[in-house]
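Bench notes, afternoon.
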Amino acid sequence: MPNRSPPAGAVQNGWLLYAQQGHPVAVLLDTPSWYAWLETATTFTFTSEEGSFTAHKAPAGNRRGGWYWRAYRRQRGRLSRCYLGLSANLTGAKLREAARHLATAAERRASEQTGEDAPPVAHLPRSWPAPPATMILQTSITPPRLPVPHIARPRLLALLEQGLRGPLTLVSAPAGAGKTTLLAAWAAATTRPVAWLSCEEGENDPARLLAALLAALARLDARLAPLGETERPWHPDARERVLIRLLNDLERLLSAETVLILDDVHLLTTEASQALLLFLLAHLPARLHVLVGTRRDLPRLAQWRARNQLAQVPSQELRFGSAEIEAFVQAMALPLGSQAIRLLEERTQGWIAGIQLV
């Protein structure tokens, strides 16, 4: 049950804004903090490109159920409403859908709602600070350090180099196969300009993913930085516009063959984040190549293979051979003979994570 004096909030541009002990607080929608706030709140306003409404929480009519949210919008003195449901169901997409529904149905439903009064709207501060720009962890856009010891694998570096003849190279292998180390080693060895992004689960929010891509690519050319600083791509149409501007700027600014490395792409599991990534790949500038590290293949790769535009490093190629295992155990100062090394290769099947554990 909500607290006696729960905070009222305002949702705008994908952020919840409310006051806590006299200080403004901003919370990104669809995060654990958003759902935790909903459990204690009883009202908030919502504003988006689709429309606006005031949401209120009330107990179920039979007094035996839980607490449910409803959205209200008054237009020309008449009230429209729609059911939102439990706090756990209040995603940003659902709120936008409700706003769109109320905006288009207000006139049609006005006669049904005549005479019904909406619950009072809680007092909200007159002004709110602008939602904060997305913070990007700098280590996520920096190639990681190579492990110690690191064993050079020139045959794999050569495979990556060959793949750059086309626009897309895929390194797909299970966890512990050494994908990130291979990509970092190539980035350290190449003379080409390189942008790096280690994908995270939070970037299933396409706005965060786009902000991270902008930050990574801005390291290639400082003229790309203002695009990330001035735009706030909260809505799908805005995200597409920003991405198109980014691709056009890259086409204009890149004067040399450049590589964007996207690691841990398997963490991008939502349809929205994958759609953004596929749009980027489908419209790559001529001088930009993409290297992808992932535990699973990307969706819809058949057309890339059919056009011979996809190079792939097979997972079995990442396995350490006898010579590489021997170099690794020597670097670890382990006195293993040839028979022990063969047994190590047989038992681990050449996977470096298993070799390290042994």
